[in-house]
Request: fold
Amino acid sequence: MTVISSTRNLDALTLVFVTEFDATPERVWQVWEDPRQLERWWGPPDWPATFVRHDFTVEGQSRYFMSGPDGEKSNGYWRIVALDEPHSLEFDNGLAADDGEPVPDLLPGRGIVTIEPFGAKTRMTVVNRFVDTAQMEMMLGMGMAEGMGQALGQLDDILG
Reply:
């Protein structure tokens, strides 16, 4: 099982997932770095992602959309804040408008990912940090916790 735990902390404004894989940290890093691999898991199975831009460099930006089962479309973006290959990455993660650009009045959350050896496996921890309670409640209400758990659950097949 990929996802070991998921924790919502309303006081800390975080949603944290801990995962483990039978792969090296370098291999796990690749599923973040390569947009074609990222597309295979960055959305739940019924809401797959398409990355139309993925500049995986510090200060680089990504644009993506997720397609729902009934033709719905949800746009998002990343702004890369820090990279330490293959150990960690940090990025702003926000909602985008129909043109794929950030919605100006909505502040992004922060994604903080650590990738580390854990015995014969690799442990990846994904911390989603929200700007305030309203943002956290909105994202959880949109199904972020369930969707991210499902998305991360797809990684074993990709890493295998």
Remarks:
- The chain is about 25% helix and 40% strand.
- The chain has a mean pLDDT of 96.
